[in-house]
Amino acid sequence: MVRGRQGEFHVHARSPHQPSAMSSALRLRDPAAAPRLLLAVCVIVLLWPGFSLTEFDPAALFEERSRGIIVKFVGTFFPLETSPEFLGLVLKSTYETLAIATAGMAFAILIGWPLALIVTRSLSISRIGPGPGRVHGSLIRLPARFVLMFFRSIPEIVWALLFVRAVGLGPAAGVLAIGVTYGGMLGKVYSEILESNDTRPATALLETGGGRIAAFCYGMWPVALPELVSYSVYRWECAVRASVIMGFVGAGGLGQQMELSMRMLNGGEVSTILLTFLLLVVMADGVSALLRKVTA
Amino acid sequence: MSLSFQKVSLEYANGVRAVHRIDCEIRRGERVAIIGPSGAGKTSLLRMLATALRPSSGTIEVLDTDPWRLDRRGLRQLRSRIGMVHQAPPIPPRQRVVTAVLAGRLGQWPAWKSLASLVYPLDIPGAERMLERMEIADKLFERCDQLSGGQLQRVGVARVLYQQPDLILTDEPVSAVDPALSDRVVGELNRDAIERGVTLVASLHAVDLALHRFPRIIGLRAGEIIFDLPPVRVSDSMLAELYASESRTVPTQDNQPLETVLAGVRRRSMFS
Amino acid sequence: MRAAHWGVVAGLIAAVWASFAYLALDLGQLLTLEAQAQMWKYAVSFFPPDFSAEYLTRIGHGTLETIAISAIGTAMAAVLGLLLALPAAGRLGAVPRAIARLILNFLRSIPELVWAALMVIAAGLGPFAGTLALAWHTTGVIGRLFAESLENTPAEPAGALRLSGSPASLAFLYGTMPNVVPQLVAYALYRWEINIRMAAILGVVGAGGLGQMLYFSLSLFQQQQAMTVIIAMLILVVIVDGASAWLRKRLAG
Q1: Chain A partners of B190 at a C-beta cutoff of 8 Å?
Q2: Mutate to test the interface with C, among B63, B72, B106 (most CBs of C within 10 A)
Q3: Do C121 and A70 touch (CB under 8 A)?
């Protein structure tokens, strides 16, 4: 550093080398420009065909014909339909939805619980130590795992559609669909809960010759119960929403009612049902929170 | 008068009195350093000059205008002529240095240029020149969160240099920079002000830096101006009294004690 | 506490009993040999799935349509969500904030399938309805999240730029956006992944893609083709899950 007279000094550039003309010209180009351009091109190339694939046509919304329908439909959204007969119908549908969700969850527990017990490795006698039981154990566990995965991977609405075709329109299809889908989910999560808790008490019981049931009742149940209940209640809340959605394909409840009203382009009824749905979701959320607090 | 405070007071919402009935005039082209203990009101003073804060009472003039009588457009134009270097550079971490520096002219560029510069920086040589003056030209395309504290502060200074304002304000601009470098940075700011004939008002924590570089020193304590003198007339006892509330020694850039060598040469900092 | 627990258990059993009673579900009906045989026959009719080249081509098209619906819908939602997030984060005043929040809440409270049914009425059958449905619902979800991001990001950078004379909009772009953009992109990609699954099923109300193919094949009693569609849906979900897990690992590492 050069100390000049007071008030004046010289700055020494600290660059390690004197840049040549060419390298300084190269240095002055933004290195991020090429990758950014490439990314932008990729995004456009990927999205562009999407517009034709989705038959993207906003102008169609403003066409004469669709404009008429939209205006007519939206125009009827207010005022809400509040005639006593309709409200009574909505109330009945709400009870039906709740019943579908509850009965469906009961089914789900019936399906998921035993499968969970089979799948939980910490309850597996055959896994303690070597022996022929080991292979047998896996032979049962793996298919059980697969069944659970199959049940929950197919979206519940697809199950609902299938059951409607199999057993007819109405709540039975909804109950079965929830039972199957949520049974798959419950089975997987139950087994995860059972496995994640401290497994030593259960293992100890198994090793000293206790049966699987005993190992479970005394080893695992007390610890796992709050978590199991909490998850099941949460799933019930989801089931309420799912029951409404499944109603759209004919599985009963509020959803089926809304679909009928929509088909008749009766906006007032649709808004009433929508409002009821929102209130139902809030109520289910409240009940679920309360139950989880009480059973914690 | 380019800048003036006329009986300016500033009180914050919680009742704290930051500045008390200050009278001060600064002519165009002057270079002033403000020193004082923490809480003296240095930052508040600078922020009032930057038109970030409005005085609770009194009149303030910045670049011969009362900023609080202007309309929105006028205020924006006035602000584009004021450049403030903050102690903690307000730069988004993920932004690149080149964009951060070019942002200095957002108040001057037309909208299309500012928008285009987001996609591809339009004045890379200009930004690079400023960074070279701050000795971090090699960081041109780095992301700001990959810089050290001192380097980031220098990017903040580079941004203000790029803005080329008529009034340069700096609030402890080199607190994180090492002593030798910080002397050069402050020197660079002074050089810029002298070359372009613009006003520079700097608040500094290190007294030796202030005395070394600036022809006018204002001492501030508890919101009041204690002295307003050229460095040769600032005595040891004045400094001691100024900082008495804070510490027994006067703060310097490298924390070495301030030394009087000869009667004629007032000060020399230990690191030079 | 014990007593309360038993009370809850009793209540739950009662609720389940009441549900079955209300639905007048005579489970016995489902368990008759006749009903069982019928269900078995129906289940068997799904096999073997239709793997003919011609149908597989249609499945391919349906899959591309599904992905396109989710992509365009999510892209629209990202743009609209950002536009609504600005007022919703309070950047334009208190009244626009309330209005924007109301709109966003409305959009996201209505489930995607209901939106799809509404859009089918508005725009007709086909993938456009599905795209719009995903767009509206996802705008509500993304918009709310963007607004929270904007509210939580520091305001100093933009403020400093305004102090040097920058117009507010440019100060926002230079000072606030760089902080927020990574979160926005990550969340948009996450929603896209969810929306692919959604796009597949919206079709059952006529909104295009694999779902619509499923609905048609079931209505036309072509169970074997329906089975192919279901398999295609499963494969799509597996691929998407795998791809996103791989991408996440690469970006994190």
Answers
A1: 7
A2: B106
A3: yes
Task: Return the structure tokens found at B65.
Answer: 């205008």
ipTM for the complex? 0.86
Instruction: Answer whether A1 touches B (CB < 8 Å).
Output: yes
> What number is the average pLDDT over the span B20-44?
90
Least confident segment among A135-149, B67-81, B156-170: A135-149
Domains identified in chain B, total number = 1
User: Given CB atoms, is C184 within the 8 Å cutoff of chain B?
Assistant: no
Domain CATH code at residue B73: 3.40.50.300
Contact between A255 and A248 (Cβ < 8 Å): yes
Q: What band does A132 get if pLDDT is binned at 50, 70 and 90?
A: low
**pTM summary value:** 0.81
Which domain covers residue B234, as residue numbers? 1-81+208-272
CA angle centred on B141, ends C159 and A18, rounded to 5°: 130
* Interface membership of A20 toward B (CB under 8 Å): no
CA distance B156 to chain A (A): 18
Q: CA-CA distance, B168 to B151, in Å (whole number)?
A: 20
Using CA coordinates, name the residue in chain A closest to C63.
Answer: A53
Range of lowest pLDDT (A20-29, C48-57, C95-104): A20-29
Mean pLDDT of B109-113: 93
Classify domain C58-252 by CATH number.
1.10.3720.10
Q: What is the DSSP string of C186-201?
A: HHHHHHHHHHHHHHHH
pLDDT of res. B265? 40
In a domain, B137, yes or no: no
Other Cβ atoms less than 10 A from the Cβ of C198: the count is 26
pLDDT on residue C25: 63
Please indicate if any CB of chain A lies within 8 Å of the CB of B184: yes
pLDDT of res. C30: 64
Q: Scanning the structure block, which residue is given the tokens 């099923």? A: C201
Share of chain B above pLDDT 70, in %: 93
Alpha-carbon gap, residue A148 to A239, rounded angstroms: 18
- In whole angstroms, give the CA distance from residue B251 to residue B2: 30
What band does C7 get if pLDDT is binned at 50, 70 and 90? Answer: confident
Mean pLDDT score across all residues of chain A: 80
> Closest residue of C to B75, CA-based?
C165
Residue C29 binned pLDDT confidence (cut-offs 50, 70, 90): low
Q: Given a cut of 50, is residue B58 above it in pLDDT? A: yes
Q: Are C218 and C133 in contact (CB under 8 A)?
A: no
Question: In whole angstroms, what is the distance from residue A124 CA to residue C83 CA?
Answer: 55
Residue B15 covered by a domain: yes
Tell me if chain C has a CB within 8 Å of the CB of A292. no
Q: pLDDT tens, A166-202?
A: 888 888 889 999 999 999 999 999 888 887 777 677 7
Q: How far apart are CA A156 and CA A141, in angstroms?
A: 24
Please, which residues 4-43 of chain C have a Cβ atom closer than 8 Å to chain A? 4-5, 8, 15-16, 18-20, 22-23, 25, 30, 35, 38-39, 42-43
Which amino acid would we find at residue A13?
A
Cβ-proximal residues to C183 (8 Å cutoff; 6+ apart), any chain: C149
Residue at B272 is within a domain: yes
List the domains of chain A with CATH numbers: 87-294 (1.10.3720.10)
Tell me if the bond preceding B92 is cis, omega within 30° of 0. no
- Residues in C touching A232 (Cβ below 8 Å): none
Taking the Cβ of residue A36 and every Cβ of chain B, the question of whether any pair is shorter than 8 Å is answered with: yes
**CB B203, CB B46: distance < 8 Å:** yes
**Residue ranges per structural domain of chain C:** 58-252
